[in-house]
TrEMBL record:
Source organism per UniProt: Janthinobacterium fluminis
EC number, UniProt record: 2.8.1.-
Assembly, per entry: Homodimer.
Subcellular location: Cytoplasm
This protein's pathway: tRNA modification
Catalysed conversion reaction: cytidine(32) in tRNA + S-sulfanyl-L-cysteinyl-[cysteine desulfurase] + AH2 + ATP = 2-thiocytidine(32) in tRNA + L-cysteinyl-[cysteine desulfurase] + A + AMP + diphosphate + H(+)
Signal peptide: none
Protein's name in the database: tRNA-cytidine(32) 2-sulfurtransferase
Span of domain tRNA(Ile)-lysidine/2-thiocytidine synthase N-terminal: 51-231
Motif position, PP-loop motif: 57-62
Recorded GO MF terms: transferase activity
Lineage top rank: taxon: Bacteria
Protein role: Catalyzes the ATP-dependent 2-thiolation of cytidine in position 32 of tRNA, to form 2-thiocytidine (s(2)C32). The sulfur atoms are provided by the cysteine/cysteine desulfurase (IscS) system.
């Protein structure tokens, strides 16, 4: 086989195939707008007069977040402003011109914050040790300050559904906590509201959207830090489940917004000590001895083969 055969370019799509691709891309855009809009509504993330600071790392998810928020702003019944912010941490080979060029062409207000956290981290953390925790702490403090300086009322991050699920499993497997990544929170300094409008978006959709839109992605390994291995394992586990048992990951995600504190063991969440038998029958009440049927959530899009559970 000749080299020419090996490197032959794929055939251009026919008109019919091109129409189909355009239709799929349009559906993807609509789906992202719907899911981001839904999360914003469910958690009251953006209100009239807000100035939303979108943190842009140069990764696919933050580009998608900015893009979708700009679309939604055009359609929203309320007025809000957007300012995109990138923190240039002075990592070696960071392509500093990509984001300013992209954002200028997009016509969105933006700010690039130059802070050499890379050198600080390298100086303080011994070679071979994980640098992420100090790096994120420094980044967080800088972004809070920038939000103050820009008068931003909300700080938007690009974490998606799979980040939320991975964090949930990380906390459960390694931290002994039933806890994930909040869709909306008050910052630890008590001064900011942080929102995650992509909370309902699947990573695969964000990935596909980045391809479709041709976002100029900046690689996230410039700092030379190793990827978090535990998170990587969990990501792989979820991908495997998704392939083998379609619907399982969706079901777990639904479970995060369908919690029964009385059926867990956290005495802070539910007052077990105050339970009394009041003699009043309740047909919807708890069944003590029978095993409860495992009802599928209303939004559950697939079924899990029981023999495989
Ligand atoms: S991967 Fe690098 S840039 Fe990202 S948090 Fe870790 S040390 Fe910082």
């Amino acid at each position: 086989m000749s080299a020419a055969t090996l490197t032959a370019a794929p055939a251009a799509p026919t008109a019919k195939q091109a129409d189909k691709i355009a239709l799929e891309n349009n559906k993807l855009h609509k789906r992202l707008c719907r899911l981001v809009g839904q999360a914003i509504g469910d958690f009251n993330m953006i209100e009239e007069g807000d100035k939303v600071m979108v943190c842009l790392s140069g990764g696919k998810d933050s580009y998608a977040l900015l893009d979708i928020l700009m679309t939604l702003r055009e359609r929203a019944p309320i007025h809000f402003d957007i300012v995109a912010v990138n923190l240039d941490q002075k990592q070696p080979n960071f392509p500093a011109d990509i984001l300013p060029t992209y954002l200028s062409n997009l016509g969105v207000a933006f700010h690039i914050e130059n802070q050499d956290t890379y050198s600080i981290v390298k100086r303080l953390i011994p070679e071979g040790k994980t640098t992420c925790s100090l790096c994120s702490r420094l980044r967080r403090g800088i972004l809070y300050r920038v939000a103050d300086e820009l008068g931003a009322t909300k700080i938007a991050l690009g974490h998606h559904r799979d980040d939320i699920l991975e964090t949930f499993f990380l906390n459960m497997f390694f931290g002994g906590k039933l806890k994930s990544m909040p869709a909306k929170l008050q910052s630890d300094d008590g001064r900011h509201i942080v929102i995650r409008p992509m909370a309902y978006v699947k990573e695969a959709d964000s990935e596909r959207y980045a391809e479709v839109k041709g976002f100029p992605i900046i690689p996230c390994d410039l700092c030379g830090s190793q990827e978090n291995l535990q998170r990587k394992q969990i990501k792989n586990l979820m991908r495997e489940w998704d392939k083998k048992f379609p619907g399982r990951v969706d079901s777990i995600f639904s479970a995060l917004s369908n919690v029964a504190p009385s059926h867990l063991l956290d005495r802070e969440l539910f007052s077990f000590t105050d339970i009394k038998a009041d003699g009043v029958a309740n047909p919807l009440g708890d069944i003590a001895f029978d095993e409860e049927p495992c009802a599928m959530p209303a939004t559950f899009p697939g079924t899990i083969p029981l023999q495989a559970v």
